[in-house]
Write a structure and sequence with these properties.
This protein has two domains: 4-176, no CATH class; 189-272. It is 44% helix and 18% strand. It has helices at residues 32-56, 75-79, 108-117, 160-166, 172-176, 188-208, 212-225, 227-234, 240-243, 248-260, 265-272; strands at 4-12, 17-24, 63-72, 85-94, 99-103, 130-137. A hairpin with a 4-residue loop joins strand 1 (4-12) and strand 2 (17-24). The model has no long low-confidence stretch (mean pLDDT 87).
Length: 274
């Protein structure tokens, strides 16, 4: 399961609809415990965010869960760092699964055409669609970067024992009730800092333990997100090019990236692979 944004629609006691966006970490599909943990963490992040907004707008910490939302043709809602704004969307509900499909369009017919292009199994959703207005929230709107689990955007590095521990008092369940201060000036760098710190720790631990294949795959992520941190670590993998055949594929991808980015490591990687 890849990391993705979870969109959750609720209605407050005052009747306002709120669209809450939170991050669900990546998890290895064969590991049911890791997948369950990732989904729970994504849901709890959303609940903590909603509680923070309700507290700071002097509203009761109560709401009606209207279900998850699948968005079509709304890249800005997926990618913008901050929310704290009203959004207007065409929306239709799947009453059997408490799920919605929603998107921007000039008309209802145009909305259904967009949904069909996205292969969204539109037969599941009840017609007619309605024009829905909601207040949007993201994790950057409140200072959730200070949460112990803020840096977890993938779970492949976690052991079963760690997942069990984080799922209870010291982790997810403790996060659920937290209320965070507003952070309207939070930058993308600040928002991404915990995940980067976690990724660096995971890579360095894997390299120190000679877990070459795992380190190589994590370095693929690191060199894309933080090249200045990732590329200097790549040379540690060079011995594995000759001793660990499982490292061949990620090392070839690293070599391709180095060539594309015209990195000085490109020549050395190519030499190691031939």
């Amino acid at each position: 399961m890849i990391s993705h944004k979870r969109f959750w629609l609720v209605r407050t006691t005052g009747g306002q609809r709120v669209l809450v966006r939170s991050t669900v970490p990546a998890a290895p599909n064969p590991d049911g415990g890791a997948v369950d943990f990732a989904r729970k963490l994504g849901a709890v992040r959303g609940e903590s965010l909603l509680r923070s907004w309700l507290a700071h707008t002097n509203q009761p910490a109560q709401w009606t869960d209207l279900g998850q939302v699948f968005l079509v043709d709304t890249e800005d809602l997926e990618e913008d760092l901050h929310g704290q704004r009203a959004v207007a969307l065409w929306a239709a509900c799947d009453p059997d699964r408490d799920r919605w499909i929603a998107g921007r369009a000039d008309s209802e017919d145009a909305f259904w055409a967009l949904a069909e292009e996205e292969r969204a199994r539109i037969e599941r959703y009840r017609r007619p669609a309605t024009l829905l207005s909601a207040w949007m929230l993201t994790e950057a709107d409140y200072r959730m970067v200070d949460a112990p689990l803020a840096g977890v955007d993938e779970t492949g590095w976690m052991t079963g024992e760690e997942i069990t521990r984080w799922c209870h008092n010291s982790g997810v369940d403790a996060l659920r009730e937290r209320v965070w201060p507003p952070s309207p000036d939070l930058t993308a760098e600040e928002h991404g800092a915990p995940a980067l710190a976690r990724l660096l720790a995971v890579v360095d631990d894997a390299l120190a333990a000679s877990s070459w294949r795992f380190a190589a795959f994590e370095l693929l992520t690191l060199v894309r997100t933080a090249p200045a941190e990732g590329w200097p670590r790549v040379s540690v993998l060079f011995p594995a090019a000759h001793t660990d055949p499982d490292c061949r594929w990620p090392l070839e991808r690293l070599a391709e990236l180095a060539a594309e980015q015209q990195r000085p490591e490109a020549e050395a990687l190519a030499a190691q692979l031939h």
